[in-house]
Structures are given as C-alpha cells and as structure tokens.
Specification:
This protein has about 190 residues and is an alpha/beta fold. The protein has two domains: about 120 residues, 3-Layer(aba) Sandwich (Rossmann fold), CATH 3.40.50.300; about 70 residues, Rossmann fold. About 55% of the residues lie in helices and about 15% in strands. The chain is globular and about 50 Å long. It binds adenosine-5'-triphosphate. Adenosine-5'-triphosphate binds next to helix 1 and helix 6.
Length: about 190
C-alpha cells in the first residue's frame, strides 16, 4: 500500500484536495487535527508539554489552547519546541492508523510534512500550490483575520517554492486550472501502484 503525503502552505487548498481523494474512497489522515487530539489524549505528550510549558498548559486536564497559543505564536523557539514534542507522537499515531487501512493507497495531509520529518515515513509527496495573494485572500475570508496576520502565519512556514520543488507531484489550485481532473489523474496513477 502506497503512503502518499499531501502538503502545501496555509490556504493552498490541502483540505479541499484531501476531501476529493476521500470521495474516491481513499482513507485520509489529517495530521493537524490528529495532533490537536493527541495533545489531549496521549499521556506521554501531555506530560512533556506540561514539563516544558508549565501546568498552565492544561486546565482541568484539557489543553489550554489560548495560553499555549499566546506562548508559541510570539516565540519561534517555543513553537519549534512544541512541534518537536508533538510531531513524533503524531508520526507514530499516523503509522498505527496506516497499518489498519485496507486501500490501494492512503493519504496523509499535513501542513508541516517536510518540517516535521514525516516525509521519511512516506513513499511520495503531493504539493498543493496556489499563489500567495490568493492564499492570503482565502485565509482572511475563512478565518476572519487580517492580511497581516495571515502573512505572519505564512512567514512561519517553509518557503512555498522550495516546498513544491520537494514534491513528486504538484496540484495547481489557482482557481483557473480544474482541480478534480488533476486529483483523478493522480488517483489513477497511485491505484496502479505508481
Ligand atoms: P490550512 O493550512 O490553513 O489548513 P488548507 O491548505 O487546508 O489550509 P483549505 O482549507 O482547503 O486550505 O482552503 C482554504 C480556503 O480556501 C477554504 O475556505 C477553501 O474553501 C477555499 N478554497 C480552496 N480552494 C479553493 C478553490 N479552488 N476555489 C474556491 N475556494 C477555494
């Protein structure tokens, strides 16, 4: 069973592309959602987050998102520290999930696929590309935040051109090219084991 990664910058349209693969019956692991869940359910991860970020990181056993966000989003080292705790646990969880799947291939969708080292556990990576201007517009609309805030989030991620160069396949989601035929082409390829 092929293990395919799916990545792209914020607002590129990874989630939408992942949903199209799902409509073709392909199982998708959403790494960002899984990481958020694991921060509340994995005892070892909870303990290490508390060790590094203090007891205030949890409130009545539940992750205190507001507190943690206020700490990591103004401090790059702290964000990297949090990621270094979360990523290995998510990679392990994704591996366990993959073993339970029965499909010609599976998709793992993650914003920080290369940054987290998850790439090493995958056979191929698809990138979703959209021009920065469009990504900013989409995220402003989706999350109700300013262009400045979106740009801040973009600046924390790997350079988009560099990211796409690392991908075996790139889906263009610029609202001019049709997306579904691009996904279908890849689906045919992966179903044939290529
Ligand atoms: P993030 O990294 O923030 O999770 P993402 O890469 O998963 O972002 P999506 O959530 O799939 O991106 O898309 C961002 C927003 O842009 C969503 O509101 C989505 O509906 C919209 N969008 C994405 N692609 C298109 C498109 N081709 N046409 C119109 N809207 C689109």
């Amino acid at each position: 069973m092929l293990r395919i990664g799916l990545t792209g910058g914020i607002g590129s349209g990874k989630s939408i592309v992942a949903k199209i693969f799902e409509t073709f019956g392909i199982p998708v692991y959403y790494a960002d959602d899984a990481a958020k869940k694991l921060m509340n359910t994995d005892a070892g991860l909870k303990a290490s987050i508390m060790e590094h970020f203090g007891e205030a990181a949890y409130e009545n056993g539940e992750l205190n998102r507001k507190y943690l966000a206020s700490v990591v989003f103004s401090n790059k080292e702290k964000l990297e520290l949090l990621n270094s705790l979360t990523h290995p646990v998510t990679i392990r969880d994704a591996g366990e999930w993959m073993q339970k799947q029965n499909a010609p291939y599976i998709i793992k969708e993650a914003a920080l696929l290369f940054e987290s080292g998850a790439e090493a556990h995958l056979d191929k990576v698809i990138g979703v590309y959209a021009p920065q201007e469009l990504r900013v517009k989409r995220v402003m609309k989706r999350d109700g935040i300013s262009a400045e805030e979106v740009m801040k989030r973009i600046s924390r991620q790997m350079d988009e051109e560099k990211k796409m160069k690392k991908c075996a396949h790139v889906i263009i989601n610029n609202e001019q090219e049709l997306v579904i035929p691009q996904v279908l082409n890849l689906h045919r390829l992966f179903t044939a084991g290529q």
